[in-house]
Amino acid sequence: MEEGTSKEPSHSCCTEEAFQWDTREDCDVRQILDRIGDKWSLLVIALLDDRSMRFTELKRTIDGISQRMLTVTLRQLERDGLVLRTVYPVVPPRVDYELTPLGVTLHDTIQSLVTWTEKHQTEIATSRARYDAAAAVPVV
Amino acid sequence: MEEGTSKEPSHSCCTEEAFQWDTREDCDVRQILDRIGDKWSLLVIALLDDRSMRFTELKRTIDGISQRMLTVTLRQLERDGLVLRTVYPVVPPRVDYELTPLGVTLHDTIQSLVTWTEKHQTEIATSRARYDAAAAVPVV
DNA sequence: CTGTATCCCATCCGATACTG
DNA sequence: CAGTATCGGATGGGATACAG
């Protein structure tokens, strides 16, 4: 194994003076958000919409993912209870992945994030270009 | 400067056989999702709700962030047009950060992600514990 | 087909010191 | 107060080879 799957987080949340939400490093929320934020998890969840997919199918669909990282990512999502892994005892082996009910609820939220991104990508690209241009040619 | 701010992405999207959405590595969507997914951006946007905050105030509020990473993160968000940086020419300097209109629209989506996480953290923690227990004590 | 194990490098990012 | 510069350790993740 590799890439620590442990490191226990604390449990209490918002114990301070009720600011907004717990921003402490070891907070559960941060632990989970870090998972969402890794390079591939969000992609996998977004792809596993209402149907199940085989390992190779996922690998083909997600451009650039290595076999290793797909395995690691799927294991983490399975551990989190977001993805269900089904092994068919045939040869050659067949393994299907699908979202659990919990995973489906997350899918919706993630989908809205993807939609937001698609919708505003032009604005962001424009903003970046303007920012870079301004930095390259100071007012003088 | 540091940590590449360039690396131009391609523009077309979903040019394949109209699968779902472009999962290619250099897609705009991926570029932006990577930003969302970095260690601190999501935190900063979530925190900058309807009010502006000073640099030090952000630093105090976000547990564990270094001065360096707060600066880097804020610069990226400014470049993306999500955060507005206002410098007051006083001494000692005062710099306020607030969400742009674009940033506000993203804030809503991100907030729903944070809410999801808060709501389901117990389920996930339980799932993880069960997974780890099963792994530690195989069926035999 | 679906993994696991190993190697190894790119980058992320924290610590620290210095500046206007 | 609000940065910037530099260094160096940790870690994410790709390439490759091997296995059930």
Q: What is the largest interface, and how many residues per chain?
A: A-B, 53 and 53 residues
Counting helices, strands and paired strands, the structural category of chain A is mainly alpha
The biggest sheet of chain A amounts to: 3 strands, antiparallel
Oligomerization status of the protein chains: homodimer
**Strand elements of chain A, count:** 3
Q: Fraction of residues of chain A in helices?
A: 40-55%
Number of helices of chain A: 5
The CATH class of chain A turns out to be Mainly Alpha
Q: What's the number of domains of chain A?
A: 1
| SSE succession of chain A | HHEHHEEH
As laid out across the biggest beta sheet of chain A, the strand order is 1-3-2
> Can you identify the CATH superfamily of chain A?
Winged helix-like DNA-binding domain superfamily/Winged helix DNA-binding domain
Shape assignment of chain A: globular
Please describe the structure with a list of short key phrases separated by commas or semicolons.
disordered N terminus, mainly alpha, 5 helices, DNA-binding, three-stranded antiparallel beta sheet, homodimer, globular, Arc Repressor Mutant, subunit A, 140 residues
